[in-house]
Design a protein that fits this description.
alpha/beta; Rossmann fold; OB fold (Dihydrolipoamide Acetyltransferase, E2P); 6-stranded parallel sheet; about 25% strand; globular
Length: about 450
């Protein structure tokens, strides 16, 4: 029996997909990248915001076409949308044969067996007690991988449904994480991206204090992976010990992904963010003072309930003056079950979109100016492949996280293998990407 996969949403969801792939491979199923050849297709859904839910539904309906017009026998929905809308999926989408919640990924083989027998199947085990970690089949290129250090979240931001979907934060033990890091190194991984809903909070629930810096030290002691990147660090939880580790450890990429979400004290309070605008500014100042060459990435939400023109103007000015190296924005999406969905003073959709466009135009000007300063510099690039249309190689620098940041395109005297580190002299900058020549 051949199994196909559609994995949607964030890198944390991708790790769950990879765990399910390993479970099914060990059970003897053949995994196929060709959906038209699959007997059963698993759609691992995202349900974080409205656009993600719509994408998940569209993918399920696309797969359902194969069930009606090709040889597909069954559809299994897993992930965040499946957890949030348990009964509705089976009631409103009869094409779906099985639904697994976020606490039941480990039940995927049982679900496949049931669907193969022509039965409907559901499992929604306690997400607070589901297994953490697990062996997986990497779907990322062999030189890069995500390593999830915790599941769930305790921050309780008023706009966010993640605690409802994935439960409270549960850190994995250091021993378990280090073992997986060693396994990934054995597979050829050269870039390890540490992830969680709030990576900076790692260890608090398990050890009683923030332990991310100590986890990094243990990973470095047990592996030789050259690039270790930290994603999703919250401003109020970036400790002096973590900053020192980023500054002094040459294998930790000097890259901090800090989702600030806003700068207005009024909006931050309404969001139930931990810390105010001064906390955010102080965190950024500390990072740049202690690590002068740090790359800062951030995100913000525009159109949150009650956001006035003055609040938005303050955000724009903050982004302009802070000059983030990388920056993204989202329009606010009211999510069922969250406090903010019930707030008064909801912002209309057109205003949200207008504010998004304005904020991203501010960041584009910042990005162009910062990237222009890179012209003439020589940087280390992790080659990712060759663009046959453009006739150039492409890859990422230390300043570019996978999937979310720009690329470095470069010419080379010969074909370069993906996963190799090369030195590139930058000759041109454009919007969010760099161009250069291998040296």
């Amino acid at each position: 029996m051949k199994i196909g996969f559609v994995s949607l949403g964030c890198s944390k969801n991708l790790v769950n997909t990879e765990v399910m792939l390993k479970i099914l491979a060990d059970a003897g199923y053949e995994i196929t990248p060709d959906e038209t050849q699959a007997d059963i297709i698993i759609v691992n859904t995202c349900g974080f915001i409205q656009s993600a839910k719509e994408e998940a539904i569209e993918n399920i309906l696309d797969v359902a076409w194969l069930k009606k017009n090709r040889s597909l026998k069954g559809i299994i929905a897993t992930g965040c949308l499946a957890e949030r809308y348990r009964e509705q999926i089976l009631e409103e989408m009869p094409e779906v044969d099985a639904v697994l919640g976020t606490g039941s990924y480990h039940k995927i083989a049982e679900a496949v067996e049931a669907v193969a027998r022509g039965e409907k199947y559901t499992s929604f085990e306690d997400k607070e007690k589901s297994p953490l970690g697990g062996e997986r089949v990497l779907t990322t290129p062999e030189y890069t991988a995500y390593l999830k250090v915790a599941e769930g979240c305790d921050n309780r931001c008023t706009y966010c449904a993640i605690p409802l979907i994935r439960g409270g934060m549960r850190s994995r033990t250091m021993e378990d994480i280090v073992k997986e890091a060693k396994d990934l190194e054995a597979l050829g991984v050269k870039e390890l991206n540490l992830i969680a809903q709030d990576t900076s909070r790692y260890g608090l629930d398990l050890y009683g204090e923030y332990k991310l810096h100590e986890l990094i030290q243990k990973i470095c002691a047990e592996t030789k992976i050259p690039w270790i990147r930290l994603l999703y660090l919250y401003p109020d939880k970036i400790t002096d010990e973590l900053i020192a580790e980023m500054r002094d450890n040459p294998r930790v990429i000097k890259y901090a992904d800090i989702p600030v979400q806003h700068i207005s004290d009024k909006i931050l309070s309404a969001m139930n963010r931990h810390g105010d605008g001064a906390t955010i500014r102080d965190c950024i100042a500390r990072l740049r003072r202690e690590i002068p060459d740090v790359t800062l990435r951030s995100t913000a939400i525009v159109g949150f309930p009650g956001e006035t023109d003055e609040d938005f103007a303050e955000l724009c000015e903050f982004v302009k003056e802070t000059e983030f190296d990388r920056f993204g924005a989202f329009t606010y999406s009211p999510e069922e079950g969250t406090a903010a969905a019930e707030f008064e003073n909801q912002v209309d959709e057109q205003t949200k979109q207008d504010r998004y466009d304005t904020l991203m135009s501010v960041q584009l000007a910042v990005s162009e100016k910062k990237l222009e300063k890179m012209v003439g510099q020589k940087i280390e690039v992790l080659c990712e492949g060759f663009d046959t249309v453009a006739g150039v190689h492409f890859g990422r620098s230390r300043a570019d996280a996978p999937d979310v940041d720009g690329k470095v395109y470069f010419s080379a005297p010969k074909k370069i293998r993906a996963g190799r580190f090369v030195e590139v002299e930058i000759t041109e900058a454009m919007d969010y990407d760099l161009f250069g020549e291998m040296k």
